[in-house]
TrEMBL record:
Binding site for a divalent metal cation: H39, D41, H72, D181
HAMAP family listed in its UniProt record: RPE
Full protein name: Ribulose-phosphate 3-epimerase
Catalysed reactions listed for this entry: D-ribulose 5-phosphate = D-xylulose 5-phosphate
UniProt-listed Pfam families: Ribul_P_3_epim
Domain of life according to the entry: Bacteria
Residues the entry annotates as binding substrate: S16, H72, G148, F149, G150, G151, D181, G182, G183
UniProt cross-references to PANTHER family, sorted A to Z: RIBULOSE-5-PHOSPHATE-3-EPIMERASE
Keyword Phosphoprotein appears in the UniProt entry: no
Cofactor(s) for this UniProt protein: a divalent metal cation; Fe(2+); Mn(2+); Co(2+)
Protein family membership: Belongs to the ribulose-phosphate 3-epimerase family.
Length: 226
């Protein structure tokens, strides 16, 4: 297990409610009470070609669940909107490198509002140019599909970047969480864990399963054993 250089890695599962019934989000949250986070995909139909939900729904979800919310902002102007998600009470707020114009300021504002700061890279975005930003980041998110939709096929092409990101993180002290999002399922989660990911988003693999809580446990066991 070459990636386990640090001592701080622990497997966390963050089910994505994008694959749940949007008319029953409170029930969807309750169905995965054994998860570590609830992953909330905010899409604006500009940064990605899909439209989901925004701050009012996040505010309602915060009242409906005790799971911390992992808000993934796939929106064109995260500098403008991200701090409000943190102020509302989200536990983690992730902005995209491709969309942020002032990522250092925005990541600092997220932290100042009491949330963990997340920074996301699309499959074709290299991690190396952001090495100097690692001190501003609590979680690095590597997309393993092109963002926009659940249920897509995992992109193996991202695996070498997961390894390189893990090495950068270890060089930086090992405290930053490394999240993967897209096509993460029983068939792919071990590859991600072996490459160095420690936080796993899963939409279809959790909410497409007959028993979402059992799916969370099964994914956790696979990742921990990898
Ligand atoms: C895709 C979203 C993901 C999505 C993952 O743009 O960011 O969080 O819900 O869904 P699955 O696990 O089905 O690929
Ligand atoms: Zn996501």
């Amino acid at each position: 297990m070459p990636h386990r250089l640090g001592t701080t890695m622990a497997v966390q599962i963050s089910p994505s409610i994008l694959s749940a019934d949007f008319a029953r989000l409170a029930e969807a949250a309750a169905a995965v009470s054994n998860a570590d986070w609830l992953h909330v995909d905010v899409m604006d139909n500009h940064f990605v070609p899909n439209l989901t939900l925004g701050l009012p729904v996040v505010e309602s979800l915060l009242k409906a669940t005790s799971l911390p919310l992992d808000c993934h902002l796939m929106i064109e102007d995260p500098d403008r909107w991200a701090p409000a998600y943190a102020e509302a009470g989200a536990g983690s707020v992730t902005i995209h490198a491709e969309a942020a114009r002032a990522p250092v300021r925005t990541l600092r504002q997220i932290r100042a509002a009491g949330a963990r700061s997340g920074f996301a890279l699309n499959p074709a975005t290299a991690v190396e140019p952001y090495e100097d930003l690692l001190g501003e980041i609590d979680m690095l998110l590597l997309m393993t599909v092109e963002p926009g939709f659940g249920g897509q096929k995992f992109l193996d092409v991202v695996l070498p970047k997961i390894r390189r990101a893990r090495a950068l993180i270890e060089r930086h002290g090992g405290q930053i969480w490394l999240q993967v999002d897209g096509g993460v399922a029983a068939e792919t989660i071990e590859r991600c864990a072996e490459a160095g990911a420690d936080v796993f988003v899963a939409g279809n693999a959790v909410y497409g399963a007959g028993d979402p809580a059992a799916a969370v446990d099964a994914l956790r066991a696979l990742a921990a054993g990898a």
